[in-house]
Amino acid sequence: MNHQSIKKHLPSFRAIDLLPLTILLVYVFMSPYNKVEESFNLQATHDLLYCKTLDCFDHHQFPGVVPRTFIGPLALTFFSFPFKFLLNKYQMLYLVRCVLGLMTWLSLTNLRSAIDQVISKKAGTFFVLLTSTQFHLLFYSSRTLPNTFALILAIYSISALLRSQIRKSFTLMVLGGIIFRCDLIVLFVPLSIYALFLRRKILMSLPEIPKDPKARANKTFLYHHNRPSSNFNCYLRIFSEFLVWSITPAISGIVLSFLIDSFFWKKAIWPEGVVLLYNTVQNKSSDWGTSPFYWYFARLIPKAILNSLPIFGLSIFCFPKLKKSPATHLAIVAIVYLFLYSFLPHKELRFVFPAIPIFNMFASAIWSYCLDNKKKEIHPIKKNHKNQKNQKSQKNVKNQKDQKNQKKLNNQRNQKDKTNQKNIKNIKKTTNKTDPKIETKSPKKFFSYFVLFIGYCSLFAGIMITLSFLFASINNYPGGKALLEMNSYLNDQKLSFKPFLHIDVYAAETGVSRFLEIPNIAYSKKENLKINQLLRYSHLITEISNLDSNKWKLIKPVQGFNGIDIKTFLKSKNFSDLFSTKDVLFLYEKK
Fold it and tell me: Any transmembrane segments, and where (predicted)?
């Protein structure tokens, strides 16, 4: 591979890439706490940083419904460990979130670079703008979900496929499915079908095998450098390549996960194999709720892509030329992916994260196409000059033999040139109203302007909706706020004994993590305790609002998100009143 081809496949950074990074960091600092789905990877990262033995790891006490891999937390620990000696635990929580967010941002930047190279730079710019004005992708890009780790590899895989690097794409996608989220297999199926046609196109564009035996013996004419002799041989070759490119990373991922996770779980285990059995064969994911078949198409994806959706819908009717674009092909892959995943009754947006950047890429390609097709008109004078040159050349060819007629023709041409010059001057003076072809605008241009208008308006609408989601999410983690409030209260009290704090289930699921714990307080998260059993603790964080006032002193309530209150907002015209809150957790001290 020469220097130019290597440079072509390397990602490039642009100033606009700092926009999603800045927004991502704002999300981290305004909403740093985690929910129960993120708890395993976050607690595991904490334990890898601070625990000296495996026995004190959180997953041995709270294993969760299904086991998860430690490969993601190990990666976060590797990049965060040097700062452990400079920052306290609470500050390390922000750092770990920023490290994961930076990993996701780098993958999105790599995809933007691929869009620049394959589609256009304008499309790459629009991709960044669309992604930055959508809430969910950047908000969850720093959250320690298994889906986030899988999303990073999926985005790199899509970028590689966009650059026609099929082997690299397969390796990344298979590793992401084997190690982090087995549901990437659902995306891998339509992706491999698209890669089949892409690979066939690449192979059929190679030079033919030379018939000369000497040329065949030349090292430049190896088997894998030449076009297959027939379609059957072509598909046979593709099948064998895909088989090797899929099985090799699959076996490597299983072995890697088995060795690492068996050590931390203290038993032989491949976590994603257990998850695959739990979700598909046993279908126990339905215990956590079910949704209709159309839920991804009708609710979750429209909610996630927001400003990309109008452009995506209009593009089907406006721009048939995009059917050959790789962005269109990948959008079809994403639709098939959603369709296949819809057969699973339990549906969540995090399951289909990889579809979001694909749809944004398709919308950005449409938007770029609109800008590249503005007012492409042919000047009538230039067109008239071309007709004159064609007429002259034809007459010269016909009358070369006859010298007598040649003089007459030259005289005629001189007269025509004079008349043509007069006509050109008249055309310059007159307007284009006489030419119906120049006068009318094509419907295609009208739709282009219309889609551009929709796109710019949707960016503004996306900003407003994103701000709404952000303010709602700030109050959606009352457990983390409650624990910080209790820690602050106990530090101010300067008690003579070591406080024993109990945290109930709701608080533990809405923001509590080991990063928020401090050494001079003992913590407990035991479940299913009766009210009398709570007396063994000195302090409580609980949902119960009416504990016996003779035994417990209410320190303060903690509020959480309670929905959107439009009536109050219209009366006060204060943006903060749009989001209503209520007391959801209560801090108690035993008398």
Answer: 12-30, 70-87, 94-111, 123-141, 148-166, 172-197, 242-265, 293-319, 326-345, 351-371, 446-471
Q: Which is nearest to 380 in space by CA: 348, 441, 423, 440?
A: 423
Q: Where are the domains of the chain?
A: 3-371, 382-439, 478-590
Give me 496's structure tokens.
């003579």
318-377 pLDDT, tens per residue? 566 687 889 999 999 999 999 999 998 889 999 999 999 999 999 999 888 877 765 443
Tokens of 5: 């081809």
Instruction: Let me know: does 181 contact 150? Beta carbons within 8 Å.
Output: yes
CA dihedral 500, 506, 512, 513 (to 10 degrees): 90
pLDDT of 490 > 90? The answer is yes
User: Which range scores top for mean pLDDT: 93-102, 285-294, 435-444, 549-558?
Assistant: 93-102
Identify the residue whose tokens are 């790789």. 326
Residue 541 has pLDDT above 60, yes or no: yes
Question: Quick count: other Cβ atoms within 10 Å of Cβ 581?
Answer: 15
Beta strands 500-503 and 522-524: pairing type?
Answer: parallel
Distance CA(410)–CA(418), nearest Å, equals 12
Residue 501 sits at φ, ψ, to 5 deg, of -105, 130
Helical ranges in 399-442 per DSSP H: 403-429, 436-439
- Could you tell me the two tokens for 93? 């929580």
CA angle 513, 519, 524 (to 5 degrees): 50
Per DSSP, 278 falls in state I
pLDDT per position as a tens digit, 147-180: 999 999 999 999 999 999 999 999 999 999 999 9
The answer to whether residues 252 and 175 touch, using CB atoms and an 8 Å cutoff, is yes
What do you get for the CA distance between the two ends of the chain, in Å?
75
Dist. CA 399–CA 529, nearest whole Å: 109
Residues 6+ apart with CB under 8 A from 409: 395, 399
What strands lie across the sheet with 552-564, from one edge to the other?
522-524, 500-503, 539-542, 579-590, 552-564
Question: Tokens 């690299």 label which residue?
Answer: 168
Q: SS3 for 562?
A: strand
- Cα-based angle 316, 338, 458 (whole degrees, multiple of 5): 50
d(CA 76, CA 47): 12
> Which residue matches tokens 């066939």?
200
